[in-house]
Amino acid sequence: MAFSDSSRYALVVTTSVLVDGRPVQALKLRSLGRPDADDHLLAGHERLDLLAYQVTQDGSRFWHVADANEALDARSLEVPGTLIRLPRLP
């Protein structure tokens, strides 16, 4: 399995599991921890990739916002008026 360097899975260890008797590569669960974050009320025009870009100049790091909110699908956070945790990214 190959992931881009900015992927949330880039450093995750893989394992082999059997599915229907066949070996399949799978990702081990990542430990998320609880990052330093600020509350942010999402406005109608905001998207997670744009918020990540404002902080890091890299919109592909939107997954940090999803992780800070324990969301598997980042799109579930993009509802105007939602209070989200916006992590302080380096």
Question: What report would you give on this structure?
Answer:
It is a single chain. The chain is an alpha+beta fold and 90 residues long. The chain has two domains: 1-31, no CATH class; 34-87. Helices cover 17% and strands 24% of the residues. The protein is built from two helices and four strands; from the N terminus they run βββααβ. The strands form two sheets. A two-stranded antiparallel ribbon has the order 1-2. Strand 1 (14-19) and strand 2 (22-27) form a beta hairpin. The longest helix is centred in the middle third of the chain and has 9 residues, at 48-56. The chain is elongated. The protein starts with 13 loop residues before the first strand and ends with a strand. The mean pLDDT is 84.
Arithmetic mean of pLDDT: 84
Share of helix, binned: 10-25%
Could you spell the SSE succession in H and E letters?
A: EEEHHE
| Class by alpha and beta content | alpha+beta
Query: What is the count of distinct domains?
Result: 2
Total number of strands: 4
Search tags:
two-stranded antiparallel ribbon; 90 residues; alpha+beta; 4 strands; two-stranded antiparallel sheet
